Amino acid sequence: MELKLSERVKSLKPSPTLAISAKAKGLRAKGIDVIGFGAGEPDFDTPEFIKEAAIKALKDGKTKYAPAGGLPELREALAEKFKKVNGIDYKPSEVVVSAGAKNILFLIFLMLLDEGDEVLIPTPYWVSYKEQIKLFGGIPIEVPTEEGRGFSLTLEDLKPFVNERTKVLILNFPNNPTGATITEDELKRIAQFCVKREIFIISDECYEAFTYDGEKHLSTASLGEEVKRITFTVNAFSKTYSMTGWRVGYVGCPNREYAKVIANLNSQSISNVTTFAQYGALEALKNPEAQKFVEKMRQTFERRRDLIVSLLREIPEVKVNKPKGAFYVFPNFRTYASKFENDIAFTEYLLDEAKVAIVPGSAFGYEGFARLSYCNSDEEITEGINRIKKALEKLS
Ligand SMILES: Cc1ncc(COP(=O)(O)O)c(C=O)c1O
Fold first, then answer.
1. Ligand 1 center to residue 341 CA distance, Å?
2. How do residues 186-218 score in pLDDT, each as one tens digit?
3. What are the residue boundaries of the Aminotransferase class I/classII large domain, all occurrences included (predicted)?
4. Cα 272 vs. chain centroid, distance in angstroms?
5. Ligand 1 atom nearest 237 alpha carbon
6. Which of 30, 76, 180, 207 has its CA at 20 to 30 Å from residue 371's CA atom?
């Protein structure tokens, strides 16, 4: 049957990262021993005390609609978190809760973009930015960053792509897929440039909890009042507390008027984030045990990062930067991928030959690279990279 789709959704592509995870899961369900490096979520369970708080909320009858912008006590706790952790002074009325960072981004683009507005996306980029922008008539503009600089964005990278149609810049540090962070100097230069040119910044800080080598995450909006006035600080409970399935994200807005619009969009679409899930999120902010859990995860990821980078560096012709954050590595497989029609065919070869699932770089705007998440045990990481090594030897 021919589908009668709107022009807007006709070109929409499904998330390739979810697709590769689904393919690996499908093979595993058939009893095939696949090692998956595709997942974009921590392999830790949500802490028990967070689950208990949501269960208690359910038992206490917190099963009805909640305010569209989020539970007042959660917005208050988030304003406190922004102050304490990020050094940003948001009022609770400037904070909105929605269904994960993904939906927050969706609503911000819906709120800001008119037909033909350009959005700068430092590349490699997280997969959903581009598709969301296009849905709302915006034009995603890819801004390549340099592998040799660890994909860390500079003002010089951006400038050639800025014109009078530029409306928004997306910053995502630590970055998915590269794990890159940004220096304080460079962030200040970029932020000041955006202030002058009146370009909004969407600062996606979902991986803020995961930085390594003693580096501390720096929030864009903490750089001063002028910067805060153009910045949306996007975050979520998903990665920080291993709560990806809970669907609780939040944003700090330049002022309460923007926050109201986002809450109104919630009210006309999802109504509110699942009420008892918000009580779980509140517990994550309030219970001091949560920070110990996050630190344990962070240390585990840092150790695994060292392991996976050292194993990848043993493979001839594979180049890999040591990421400074998040839980991904983004190696350059061009020598091998160029033997195939494209890098999708290359990753399919690895799935068939080595039974290892990785995500092709083209999904992130960088053909010939691939993203590997290290949300796996040390044993799986070791076995998986060895399998890749053997499969690549066959191509030499
Ligand atoms: C950079 C980035 N932003 C946003 C999201 C979406 O997060 P959430 O699960 O809270 O919607 C992800 C998830 O993979 C991400 O990597």
1. 30
2. 999 999 999 999 999 999 999 999 999 999 999
3. 33-388
4. 22
5. 10
6. 30
